[in-house]
Amino acid sequence: MNRRKFIKRTFFGLTGIGLVTGLYTWQIEPFWLEFVKVKMPIKNLPDDLVGKTLMQISDMHVGKRFDHRYIIKSFNKAKEFNPDFVVYTGDYVSTHKGKVLYDVLDEVFGHMVKGKIATLGILGNHDYGINWAEADVADQIASKLSDNGVDVLRNEATAISGLHFIGFDDYWGLNFNPQKAMQHFDPTKATIVLCHNPDVCDEDVWGQYNSWILSGHTHGGQVKPPFLPPFILPVKNRKYSAGQFSLSNDRTLYINRALGHLWQVRLNVRPEITLFELQKG
């Protein structure tokens, strides 16, 4: 093979690889949902909750960035698992031209996955509208969640069948008050904290808390080249990308990779719904 043919074949080969990769990251992986199963040992878990399932859904980002029917189809798949608890950990919307598409959100919320025992949720930064500064947007989204059977925790706690949930309002939003939320913590009770932004794990707000924290927010970076960390992560602590982390004082953090997307592109970071199996800790 002469040099000209080699260069030509190399050029077309690399062009073809680029086109295939581009198509995959745009049209395939963003909709290739993975159900991730995780064991969840919890201290003081009541006997009758052992073996129950808790589903985490995060970062739906309903708007114009991708076809919202993907979220509805994902919900229908998730319902086949018939979870006992469902928790939504924020970022239900992405604004379009500065507005939340409430009609589309209503359609999606009409298909939400519900837990047999309970369904709970918290808010994320995008649920506070433009620049995370629109309290009326957050209030309206919270109201719509409640209307659809989701118990929204805004620096609040609730106990259901012996399992206690503490929900933080968003770290970047207008109503972040972890001290108010954590005043409900009882170390003798089985407890899970819902906290959209994992950076909160490094704040001095946890006291003696020693159980699970469920977060989202990062989307796992959405694009992760082989053998390299994600290029973009919206957190100060760059280790908080996705998955399970052991923290100080016997805390365990889990970061969901998100169901939706800020932009319709993913590489080595498939969208995720997490299914936890409750166990004695």
What do these coordinates show?
The chain has 281 residues and is of the alpha/beta class. The protein folds into two domains: 1-31; 34-280, 4-Layer Sandwich (Purple Acid Phosphatase, chain A, domain 2). Helices cover 22% and strands 22% of the residues. The chain is built from five helices and twelve strands. It has helices spanning 3-28, 69-79, 102-109, 135-147, 178-182, and strands spanning 34-42, 53-57, 85-89, 118-122, 151-152, 156-160, 163-167, 190-194, 212-215, 243-246, 252-255, 272-280. The strands form two sheets. Strands 1-12-2-3-4-5 form a six-stranded mixed beta sheet, with helices on one face. It has a six-stranded mixed beta sheet with strand order 6-7-8-9-11-10. A hairpin with a 5-residue loop joins strand 10 (243-246) and strand 11 (252-255).
- The total count of strands amounts to 12
Write the CATH architecture name of the largest domain. Answer: 4-Layer Sandwich
Helix proportion range: 10-25%
Straight-line N-to-C gap: 65 Å
CATH topology of the largest domain: Purple Acid Phosphatase, chain A, domain 2
Classified in CATH, the superfamily of the largest domain is: Metallo-dependent phosphatases
The low-confidence runs, each spanning 5 or more residues with pLDDT under 50, are 6-18
The strands making up the biggest β-sheet line up spatially as 1-12-2-3-4-5
SS field, number of helical segments:
5
The SS-based structural class is alpha/beta
What integer is the average pLDDT? Answer: 93
Strand content: 15-25%
Global shape: globular
String of helices and strands: HEEHEHEHEEEHEEEEE
If you compute it from the alpha carbons, what radius of gyration comes out, rounded to the nearest whole angstrom? 20 Å
Query: Largest sheet, described in full?
Result: 6 strands, mixed
Q: How many domain units? A: 2
| CATH class category label of the largest domain | Alpha Beta
